[in-house]
Each structure stands twice: as structure tokens, then as C-alpha cells.
Write a structure and sequence with these properties.
Blueprint lengths: L3 E6 L6 H10 E6 L4 H10 L2 E3 L8 H4 L6 E3 L10 H6 L3 E3 L5 H4 L4 H14 L2 H9 L17 E5 L3 H12 L3 E5 L11 E2 L3 H5 L4 E4 L13 H4 L7 E4 L8 H9 L5 E4 L12 H8 L3 E3 L8 H19 L2
Parallel strand pairs: 1-2, 1-3, 3-4, 4-5, 6-7, 6-9, 7-8, 9-10, 10-11, 11-12
Helix pairs in contact: 1-13, 6-8
Length: about 325
């Protein structure tokens, strides 16, 4: 029996530990796909397709393809039409709901604080200032985290890790989650998103993205924040109505926004927030790198490779 063929797109090289497993069980090939036609053709040619966030797999692309397994080492699947995969008999192999394993993957929680500290300490401009030959510390007085009130929106795996990191900084931790949670007795549960927003200095967003959470941070919610609040988003861009957010920023009704995600990414060249960030210091944006560390990539790719082999050999 011939081996199944895996195409890998948007990844220079799968981690060595995962590659070894894949090479023993499948024919592994790296491909470069620069159009939807090329993507459709690839899905017709391979049995298994592995990618990260570089494609959007819509129903029309997935319809009548040969590929039977979609692999993606992430938790959020908003870039894949999950219902279409179900309809067409395509199995998605991802990190979604892999709660125990994901407790050891903390890169995004760490990046949340990297973004937050960069925003409140004004390091974006400070870096440029020194690199241009200047040294005027009076221009860069920042803000401390100690004793600030942080609101964690979504106390799932990442939200709880961020809450614990915040506690270590000496912050007061407030949270809202639709589920009752057993957590640190020092963390204060709020009754709603609006209740949370009315109490805090910093809002950190840790929700899954779906139809129910689309634009959940909108004008109505933003109105509950005071004008000194900072917002950090390392979840998904579609959670925030970026038009409403930009309006608040322009009116100076929000202190700043740090995000690793944008709605519509990766097509963001003329995105309203990137244009704003280019000429304003109170918005900083990174290109969805929260979980992109050597350690997290190695762990997650090995997990996905093992999970695929187990599914196929069941």
C-alpha cells in the first residue's frame, strides 16, 4: 500500500521531531502556493494538507478535493470552514480542545505581557529615539503595572495563565467568563463584560472567535471603559470592532491598544489600524507571533504529527 502524501504550506520546515514521525509514515513535500487556484490544485493532489495561518480554506476551495486531512497546529479555526470539512468528509487535526497538552504551551500568554509592557512603557518610540542617536529620557515617562486593575475577558487556559502572571506583577485581577471557574481566591469575578470594563485599568482579551463573539468588543462595550484604559488582544482580530476602536482612539477615549491580531489578516497593508499605528505611538501591532516560539512550535508540531498517526492507524 502506497504512503499518503502530505503537502506542507507556509512552513519552511516542520520541527525535526515531528518530521521524523511524518517521514516514517507519509510522503512529505513542502509547497509554495500563491493563489487560490494553486491552493485548490494542491488540495486535489495531496491526501493531507498541513499549514498554519497563511490560507483561508473556504467552502468553494474545499469542495470536491482529494485531501482528507487538514492539519493546523493552532486552537482557533476561524480560517477554516469547519462545516464544509464536515460536509465533505475532511478531518481537521488541530489543537482545539487539547486542554491538558496546551497547559505546557505558554508563549501567547508571555507575549501578552510583552505587548502590554511595550505599550505602557512607550518602548516603540524609545527604541527609535535611541537608534536615531538621541538620549532624552524625559520624553518617555511610562506607567507601572503594580496595583493596576487588569480585566481578563475569558478565563480559559490562556486567560488564567495571564491572570496568574498579572498576580505576580502585584496587579488586582478581575475577570469575566460565561462559565463558573475555580480559580485563585484573589481574582474577582464580574457579572458581565460591561461590569468588568467599568472597574479596570487594562483589558486583556482571551476569547475564542466564533459567531457569538464576533465584534464582542464594540462601541457599547468600549463606552464602559475610562479614557485611561489600555487594551491588549492576543486572541483574534474579529473579536474587536476595529472601526469602533479607532473612533475611540481618535477621540482619546482609550489610552492605547496593543494587538497581535487584526481582522482580515494577513491582508493588512491598508488596514485602518496599521495606518493609525504608523503615525501614533499608542497602538502597537505584531504579526500574529504570540505562539510562534521555537519551543511552542516544536511541541505543537510534534503533538499534531503524533495525533495524525494515531487517527489514521485507529
Amino acid at each position: 500500500m502506497s504512503k499518503l502524501r502530505i503537502y506542507v504550506s507556509g512552513i519552511d520546515r516542520i520541527a525535526d521531531s515531528a518530521s521524523k514521525i511524518l517521514a516514517e509514515n507519509f510522503v512529505l513535500e513542502y509547497v509554495s502556493l500563491n493563489s487560490n487556484d494553486a491552493l485548490k490544485n494542491a488540495l486535489n493532489t495531496c491526501d493531507i494538507f498541513w499549514f498554519r495561518l497563511n490560507h483561508k480554506l473556504t467552502r468553494d476551495i474545499l469542495e470536491e478535493v482529494n485531501c482528507k486531512y487538514i492539519l493546523c497546529a493552532v486552537t482557533g479555526l476561524d480560517h477554516i470552514d469547519v462545516k464544509a470539512c464536515e460536509d465533505f468528509g475532511i478531518t481537521i487535526v488541530s489543537l482545539k480542545n487539547e486542554t491538558e497538552f496546551l497547559k505546557e504551551v505558554r508563549a501567547t500568554a508571555e507575549h501578552t505581557f510583552g505587548l502590554l509592557l511595550s505599550l505602557i512603557r512607550r518602548t516603540k518610540l524609545a527604541f527609535n529615539h535611541v537608534e536615531s542617536g538621541e538620549w532624552d529620557r524625559s520624553l518617555f515617562r511610562g506607567t507601572e503595572l503594580y496595583k493596576k486593575k487588569i480585566g481578563i475577558l475569558g478565563l480559559g487556559r490562556l486567560g488564567e495563565i495571564v491572570a496568574k502572571y498579572a498576580d505576580a506583577f502585584g496587579m488586582e485581577v478581575y475577570y469575566f467568563d460565561i462559565m463558573e471557574k475555580k480559580t485563585n481566591d484573589n481574582f474577582i469575578r464580574c457579572n458581565s463584560i460591561k461590569d468588568l470594563c467599568s472597574k479596570i485599568d487594562i483589558l486583556s482579551i482571551h476569547l475564542p472567535y466564533n459567531d457569538d463573539t464576533h465584534f464582542i468588543i464594540n462601541r457599547e462595550v468600549l463606552d464602559c471603559l475610562n479614557n485611561k484604559v489600555y487594551i491588549v488582544n492576543t486572541s483574534r482580530g474579529g473579536l474587536v470592532n476595529e472601526g469602533d476602536l479607532l473612533e475611540k482612539l481618535n477621540k482619546k477615549e482609550i489610552a492605547g491598544y496593543a494587538t497581535d491580531v487584526l481582522f482580515g489578516e494577513p491582508d493588512t497593508k491598508n488596514h485602518l489600524l496599521t495606518l493609525y499605528a504608523a503615525s501614533n505611538e499608542n497602538v502597537i501591532i505584531t504579526p500574529h507571533i504570540g505562539g510562534y516560539t521555537y519551543e511552542s512550535v516544536d511541541k505543537t508540531e510534534l503533538f499534531i504529527a503524533k495525533k495524525l498517526v494515531n487517527i489514521i492507524h485507529e
